Amino acid sequence: MAASGTNSRQSELGDFLRSRRQKLAPKVVGLPVGRRRRTPGLRREEVAELAGIGVDWYVRLEQGRSVSPSVATVDALARALRLTKAEHRHLRELTQNIDRRAFVRETVPPAVRRAVEQLNLPAYVTGRRWDILAWNAAADEIFAFSRLADADRNSLLLVLTNLATRRLFGASWADEARRMVTQFRATHDLWAGDPAFRDLLARLREGCLEFAGWWEAHDVSGVAAGRKSLIHPKQGRLKLEYASFQANDDPALKLVIYTRV
Question: Cα angle at 211 between 258 and 252, to 5 degrees?
């Protein structure tokens, strides 16, 4: 996917910059709102001036054309657009010229799998595409991974398109689903154009009416520990705290562990 993947990543870079520019109010950066503004947010020339770069050069970035900005330029754009730490990191990653091979689903090393299975706390392992690759009995009792077809064992598909899981989250479903979309956005954009990721997006669009709007917003957030409140049909109300860890064997693998609070 070297050529097509690079072009797709550049397209995502342009879309990301445009989405941040359009969401940034002029008054936030000290510019007058004025009556002649026909589009939301800042104009391209205003972003270029704030970042200290040429307008034509910035336009090429937004158009997804082949441009390789320096680290200093990326940092200047982040300051001009008032990006968060997660957004700044995402911008840096998008501008790196990395040719990726086609995505291949990860394999969990036997030692990692056995460790997860023997944990008393609910735990599971996911890959870069958020596929659920291994889990233990405690996690299965809550999320019923073993009842899913192999192609459906994906965190995003489970939360966004599975009606049983949607009921599990109850009133908090929309907030949880949107949070996951913003976190996955950061990963997807680096793999944009890859067939496996395109297939996942197609399934999410088809299975979740809300997904398209969340996706087009191009919001990005980092992965962090947090809490979930679930309504389980057998266990009742569950208040869980979760944290995630990378595996030394393969940094693409993420171990997620839950504790009750």
Answer: 45
**Cβ-proximal residues to 220 (8 Å cutoff; 6+ apart), any chain:** 16, 86, 87, 90, 182, 185, 186
Overall average pLDDT of the 49-76 stretch: 90
Mean pLDDT, range 94-107, rounded to an integer: 85
**In degrees to the nearest 10, what's the CA dihedral of 205, 207, 213, 215?**
-50
Query: Tokens standing for 193?
Result: 């154009």
Kindly report which listed range (5-9, 56-60, 155-159, 209-213) carries the lowest average pLDDT score: 5-9
- Residues whose CB is less than 8 angstroms from the CB of residue 163 and which lie 6 or more positions away in sequence, other chains included: none
Does pTM top 0.85 for this prediction? Answer: yes
Q: 151: which residues sit within 8 A by CB, 6+ positions away?
A: none
List Cα–Cα distances, 157 to 35, 82, 112, 129, 151, in angstroms: 44, 32, 24, 11, 10
Residue that has been written with the tokens 């790196």 in this structure: 96
Closest CA to 218 of 182, 191, 187, 254: 182
Contact 214, 178 (CB under 8 A): yes
> Who contacts 179 (Cβ-Cβ below 8 Å, separation ≥6)?
221
User: 197 and 188 in contact (C-beta within 8 Å)?
Assistant: yes
Q: Provide the strand spans (E) within 1-145.
A: 123-126, 132-135
Cross-strand bridge partners of residue 255: 125, 245
143 sits in which H/E element = helix 137-143
- Residue 186 to residues 88, 90, 133, 149, 167, Cα–Cα distance (Å): 11, 6, 20, 26, 27
CB of 174 within 8 A of CB of 210?
A: yes
